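Teaching assistant here, posting this on the class forum so everyone can see the example we discussed in section. The complex has two components, and the goal was to see what a joint structure prediction looks like when all of them are supplied at once.
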Amino acid sequence: MRFTPRIRILLIGAITVGVAIPATLDAQRQNRPVVVASKPFGESYLLAEMFSQLLESRGFSVERRPGLGATEIAFGALRTDAIDAYPEYTGTGLVAILHDTLPDSIMADPRAVFAHVARRFADLYHVRWLPPLGFQNTYAIAVTRSAANRYRLRTLSDLARESPHLTAGFTADFIGRSDGLVGLSRVYGLRPRAVRPLASAVKYQALAAGAVDVIDGYSTDGLLARYDLVTLVDDKHFFPPYEAAALVSGRLDSQMPSAIAALALLSGRLDETTMRQLNRRVEVDGEDVKKVASDELIALGLVGGNAVRGARGIPSAQHSGFWKYLWDRRTTLAALTVRHLELVALALLAAVIVAVPLGLGLERTRRIAEPTIGALGVLQTIPSIALLAFMIPLLGVGIVPALVALWLYALYPIARGTYTGVRDADPDAVAAAEALGTTPTQRLLWVRLPLAAPVIMAGIRTAAVITVGAATLAAFIGAGGLGEPIVAGLALADTRMILSGALPAAALALAVDGVLAIVELLVAPAHRRTRLWQRRTEGAEAATTSPETAPISTRQ
Amino acid sequence: MPISLAARNVSHRFGNVVALDDVSIDVDAGRATALVGESGSGKTTLLRCFNRLVEPEHGQVMVGDQDVRTQSPVLLRRGIGYVQQHGGLLPHWRVLRNVALVPTLQHMPDSADAARRALELVGLPSAQFGSRFPHELSGGQRQRVAMARSIAARPGVILLDEPFGALDAISRAELQESFDNLRHDLTVTTLLVTHALAEAGRLAEEVVVMRKGRIEQRGSRRDLIRAPATDYVARLIERARAGLEALRA
């Protein structure tokens, strides 16, 4: 009898949920933002922005994750439904993801390659290639005109012949890919004297400055023309076709067919000439990606003239003064700074909550203290970007994996500071407190923690500064923050944009360090504070309280 | 109320090192006994058995008429005064708060008053010294504060572990004198560890000479001088005397 009302409620609840769930799910499908990402180079940014604006013009809300990461990261995120769409190239899918080799007859036919790749992706990963956008962006192995003349370079075979004299500057992606340096070495026998991994954004400058002799570019790159470079002919037809297309997640495909339909509107609409012009506007003229994307969508008749929010009023990056540039972007930068601080504060708070008790616990079990802290120290040696990449399969992209990674980095300095501080806190005082009948908790709260506070605080301070720096990398997995303009600026070869993230980040690190320095003073044990005060005021009081002037001789 | 102390057939080892080898001593209530020996003789280990800082492997340790093992270490220690070589004052607490530690732990309602009285007893007026931090005192003053801390809650027994060991000769002599006065005023049972036979003889009614974890001889200073039980004791006395002669010459 007692359970009857409860059961009734449960039944009603179950029925309500049963009726409501399909309806709400449908509503959620419509309300859920479509997550659009890009790889970290200009064209990918531009295409992702076009996808985003196109979706927005059709009433979808869009979450942008520009410059998410190289193929591995972007595709990993798509596979796990952490993102919904990003621009990809069929050749990359074929070689870098599927690791397939096709007969030359098929390789020569872009349509056949697309069909193969689309079928295999659907079978293996349940992700969908939308029909190609209409242009190919193949690798363009480029040298300066003077080098081409000096070494008589026209084809990749020529390059292979001269390669022992040449230094290559390739993107990390290209160096590791089987359709990159690995394959070039195998097919052409390319053996450069040295290979320097370079970010996309700097390789053109490095080539122009003579730091490297040969780089990997993209055939639609806006920068190829700017630096007057010679693209070498792929005389052995090594590179597969690289048709650009939207790659969409299985979830988007099954849940939001109307979004797929919207994205498909771009299929076949962008030819190579158009794309090269658009890339040039972004990479050479420094025009805003949003503006270029909206101009093209309007020109294609895909969106109305005023459909795009925020596209207007953003000045061109390259042609105004730096401070004006910063000023014009103040609201964006302020928002990014707030997001950055949120990331740092949350990660740091979580690290303090875990690492301080951990340090205290280790002080009680010293046998495992050094191995444990050592293990946390090993985490510090993992490059931030690698740690962030590890997080994607586990936690997807966005804020959560970034917080976890930052949290892991912050643990070591705090745990180390707490352990050392508490362990080394005035052993005589601790021993006396024990001998006089204090409990372990009283010793901790009255003696050890107050005396260890400055060392613990120093650990927290170190962790905070590390976290402010590492948080800039969180932008690579779409967590936002001041890393966003850095990542975008690197991809677009826009120094101002990089600085607009890097300078506030550096200022933030200094500010956080300064604030915590004050906190460190405030938590110093009472006798240290007094000393500091006396040092500042000097004066008569210090003299009367010094041991020499208040000796025991008063009793003689 | 002074309390008696007793150790019966106490043995203890640290790893393979024998610290105490079947040691027995008695200290009658209100009396003072000094444990004398070189480092490694086991004197400090024996002292620390009485407030359970060391738990001996064998034997029985009594404080009053109770085996220490029947009492919680924390409560036991609150009833026993303790002074160590380097005072062990809490550096971030002012003198008065340091001295009021045990009264506070015992929830005495007038713990600050108890601390003030204890400071007066060791010759440090609380008005002048109570609000200083330990680092604002001389070494001798710090040791006085440690002594005040040990008596503030009026324990029946005080354990002192080389309390004058780190002081210069003049401070030491002054502190010894005020300790002697204090002990008689308070009628407290005292167990004192020292490596100096002269100090032991001056401050304690009974002297226990220890060596390698065993007792060589126990008795009054007079007993020891008149009839040293072993060569070691005789040499110890000889050395103390030689020091004194050298000073007179």
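For the discussion questions: Chain B touches chain A at residues 51, 53, 74-79, 82, 84, 86-94, 101-102, 105, 123, 132-141, 144, 146, 149-150, 171, 174, 178 (CB under 8 Å). The longest helix of chain B spans residues 169-186. Think about how each of these relates to the inputs above.
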